Amino acid sequence: MLKRERARNIVDAVLAIGMGVLCIAMRGTLLHVLLVALGALLVAAGVIDLVLRHEVVIGAVKIVIGVFGVSMAWDPVTVNIFLYLLAVVMSIYGILGILQVIVNSQNGIKSKFHAALRPAVHLAIGIALFIHQPGFVTWFFILTGVLLIVIGVLSVAAAVSED
User: The whole model's pTM is what?
Assistant: First the structure.
């Protein structure tokens, strides 16, 4: 059983290294693939909102944006538009999350800080994506690729050194 788990860990680590290399080497192609996947997920989430939650407006918006993302993911102009929309949505989501923490949190500063951390990251990503989209996307994929490679190498080393 331990050999099977070790083999699985090594395979996972090698896949992480491979994904890291792909993130660095094929940034543009991966961006398009991710936009298609994001669009498909938005369509599915919109259908769930319509059918199960009976939220017509939110479900319809998700479906329209998802169809737009899937159908236009290979056109550079629409990719830029989609990323700018994502930047605006993430910024608004971050601002609303921070305001919610400020208004609703009754605990101390440390609790407010932890609760506001995720919305603050959303706001920072939204602003960075809006201000300098090409550079942000490039560095995002490079950083993700490097982190995946490091995680993969460390995981292989840990799996190989297990007794």
Answer: 0.62
